[in-house]
Specification:
single chain; alpha/beta; 5-stranded mixed β-sheet; about 25% helix; globular
Length: about 550
């Protein structure tokens, strides 16, 4: 795409963007190992925002009745940076941000980067024990929170996030630069894993990671800063995932760079609120995990809302079931040929690693796509079907787990993801489950994701989760929790077994069933809480 320069945009900014945002890749070394990087590429946060001054009159953040323009946000960023500096926070200091989604949360993140501090993004739904664990591991200098009272054992200096509200009332100020360490591999962000298989781990990401993830996303969507016309209509994105997840951070940065509007929901995910916000704010893009999509499509008020503005609905966090893809295409005709997508990534990868569009999903059902330009994939010790653990190397992957050295990243820079998958002859990746999401029944390994995909094709099943339960003879047996569409008869287990017998081996067919119409329990980010599901089944005597 040719560069666009208009009278309202300083030529120097456009030229600078062209010098720091490239589309070519080269072999290089980073973090002490070989890999692939973009050249040229942004190396500082100042590079990241070098053309964003032209968006000053646009709306950046919306939540409820609040609307914050780019100009107001820029002024508030300077004020908040002074606010934090006055409390002794500076380059390299860790600051735990522990709050629900809000404009103040976004302001805290950007202002911490402004003064060179290291944001630590805590999960607002943590228990007191988990908060204590995070504080012990990361040793923050300051905690910014909306929690009225933290556990008594925490003695760290605390600031209420509400103290940043007044920063949005600040008068115009000159643009303020970012105090960045010179090294691209210096820490820039700490997030936590979900904790679904143990205590949350603190993931440390470099500045290279944060910026490379943005370059991947912008290049894929053809929105490099130098190619964005100032006069184009701004995009509008609805963000329901927690800002303390990597997807939330990615959205904040992408929309800031591109001059787009972010609409924040209020409270936890609610399908009815999503439908209302898409209509009222003319949302063009909304993404999440497949569970969210299913609940929106099945909401009783779906047909009462005008969703014609929606042009992009990317999903991640799990493979996209074919049945769900078909329902999305049928209920939103404007997305039949483009706008749907599936991605794969994790906290440890610093963002998204692969992406699949409409044509990819039609041609290769169940794929999560092909890797971004700087992402390298390998399958470790594949079995006879080509399935093995997925290894990835990319400038976006984490520097380390703080306080844990478990070999997750080897000495050649390969991240051992714990996901099982295979790559077809055209380079498309398929996720076949988690290495720990395997049920071993009588010596046979069963990938839960494989069974879930087979069940999801049933026209009246809207959610499904498969788990392993202890068994006195087999070691484990397979159990399925099935959510059927409200208003339809509950599927009969015998009918479901018959349906599966044509596609699954006999040992892959569940022997215990929980058929319900209530939604599955979820963790933060709406991923299914399988630990909770296991407890719903009575224990078999050993």
């Amino acid at each position: 795409m040719a560069r666009t320069i208009d009278a309202d945009t300083p030529v120097s900014d456009i030229d600078r963007a062209a010098q720091v945002w490239g589309s070519t890749t080269t072999d290089a070394e980073y973090a002490g190992h070989p890999g692939i990087v973009y050249e040229p590429r942004p190396r500082t946060f100042d590079d990241l925002v070098c053309t964003t001054g032209r968006w000053s009159e646009r709306t950046y953040l919306v939540q409820g009745q609040r609307r914050v323009s780019f100009r107001e946000f820029g002024n508030a960023r300077s004020a908040a940076a002074d606010f934090l500096a006055a409390r002794g926070i500076g380059r390299g200091d860790r600051v735990l941000l522990l709050a629900y989604n809000s404009p103040e949360w976004a302001l805290a993140l950007w202002s911490l980067w402004t003064i060179g501090a290291l944001p630590v993004l805590g999960n607002r739904w943590w228990s007191a024990h988990e908060i204590e664990h995070a504080v012990t591991v990361t040793e923050p200098t300051l905690i910014i929170t909306d929690i009225p009272e933290l556990p008594e054992s925490i003695t760290v200096q605390t600031e209420p996030i509400s103290g940043l509200i007044s920063c949005f009332e600040t008068a115009d100020r000159p643009d303020r630069g970012f105090d960045s360490a010179p090294d691209e591999d210096a820490p820039a962000l700490i997030l936590f894993t979900s904790g679904s298989s143990g205590r949350p781990k603190a993931v440390e990401l470099s500045r290279r990671s944060v910026l490379s993830n943005q370059q991947n996303l912008l290049l894929r969507s053809r929105r490099l800063p130098q190619d964005l016309p100032t006069e184009a209509q701004p995009g509008s994105t609805l963000l329901c995932t927690p800002l303390f997840h990597i997807g939330g951070v990615s959205n904040l940065l992408t929309q800031f760079i591109c001059g787009g509007k972010i609409v924040l929901n209020e409270g936890r995910f609610d399908a009815g609120q999503v439908l209302r916000l898409i209509e009222e704010e003319k949302v063009q893009s909304w993404g999440g995990v497949p569970t969210m999509a299913s609940r929106v499509l099945e909401h009783p008020d779906f047909d009462r809302h005008d969703l014609s503005s929606l042009r992009s609905w990317p999903l991640g966090g799990a493979p996209l079931p074919q049945g769900l893809l078909e329902r999305m295409q049928n209920r939103l005709p404007q997305l039949r040929t483009r706008g749907l997508g599936n991605t794969w990534g994790m906290t440890e990868s610093g963002g998204f690693l692969t992406v699949a569009g409409n044509r990819d999903l039609e041609k290769y059902p169940g794929t999560v796509g092909r890797p971004y330009n700087v992402v390298e994939l390998r399958i470790s010790e594949p079995d006879r079907d080509g399935i093995g653990e997925i290894l990835v190397r990319s400038p976006t992957i984490m520097l380390r787990y703080i306080g844990v050295d478990d070999g997750t990243i080897d000495d050649r820079g390969w991240l051992h993801t714990g996901d099982l998958g295979h790559i077809n002859n055209d380079g498309y990746l398929f996720i076949d489950g988690r290495s720990k999401d395997i049920v071993i029944r009588g010596g046979e390994n069963i990938a839960c994701a494989h069974v879930e995909a087979a069940l999801s094709v049933h026209p009246d099943i809207v959610e499904v989760a498969v788990v392993g339960l202890p068994h006195p003879d087999l070691g484990e047996e397979l159990a399925a929790v099935v959510v059927h569409r409200v208003g339809t008869p509950a599927p009969d287990p015998e009918d479901l077994r018959s349906m599966l017998s044509g596609t699954l081996a006999y040992f892959e067919i569940p022997t215990r069933w929980d058929i319900r119409h209530e939604p599955l329990p979820t963790l933060a980010g709406e991923k299914t809480d399988k630990k909770a599901l296991v407890t719903t089944f009575p224990t078999v005597d050993q």
